[in-house]
Amino acid sequence: MDQPLLLSPSPGSYVMFLPPDMGCVKYFRKELRHTLKANGFPQNNIAQIELASDEALTNSVSANVSCSCDETIICRWRIQGSKFTLYILDYGSGFSGEEVVPETDPELLKSDKSLCFSTFLNHIKTHQNNKPEVLPYNGTDQKHKNMGKGLKIINAMMDSVKVMFHGEGMVNEAPQGFKVMGSIIALEYDHSKHL
């Protein structure tokens, strides 16, 4: 795999176009670390941002692979003073309209709360089982254990995390009214809040 290039269309603005391959994560992390350092971010904040960003990119690679999609993943970030914002756009389908966790039936909840919880857990297990067991690393499939904790880690590390869906020229937080082509995750961090 060729090393992906970092582009900087304007001061404080960066973008990388990455293949859906885990080998690209180390290049992304290296460039991200370099740009954060160059913009005066403290090392402990850089480590936190790197971990959350790494998890988000891994989720995007996994989403593309789950859909047998080899479309390019776009990572775009902006650094303004103490504020960092990252957008990662992928072409994995995420939860489609048919896969949304069913709402709790109030009557069932009154009669058997454990059955509702069990149904919810089974839905999550089914979703996790559909995730790939192998991910490409420099073009070769490698075993990958998806622990399902990526978003939890990202949320713990960042000030703000937002997941949106894109498709048919539209972007929305809820994938309603259009065919989902992929997701966009937006991460924000302000190192002035973490002194």
Tags for this model:
seven-stranded antiparallel β-sheet; 5 helices; globular; 195 residues; alpha+beta; single chain; two-stranded antiparallel sheet
Describe it.
- The chain has 195 residues and is of the alpha+beta class.
- The chain has 5 helices and 9 strands; from the N terminus they run ββααββααββαβββ.
- The protein has helices at 23-38, 43-66, 106-111, 113-129, 150-157, and strands spanning 7-10, 13-18, 73-80, 83-89, 134-137, 140-143, 160-167, 170-172, 182-190.
- Strands 1-2-3-4-9-7-8 form a 7-stranded antiparallel sheet, with helices on one face.
- α2 runs antiparallel to α5.
- It is globular, with a radius of gyration of 18 Å.
Blueprint of the fold:
Elements (H helix, E strand, L loop, with lengths): L6 E4 L2 E6 L4 H16 L4 H24 L6 E8 L2 E7 L16 H6 L1 H17 L4 E4 L2 E4 L6 H8 L2 E8 L2 E3 L9 E9 L5
Antiparallel strand pairs: 1-2, 2-3, 3-4, 4-9, 5-6, 7-8, 7-9
Helix pairs in contact: 1-2, 2-5
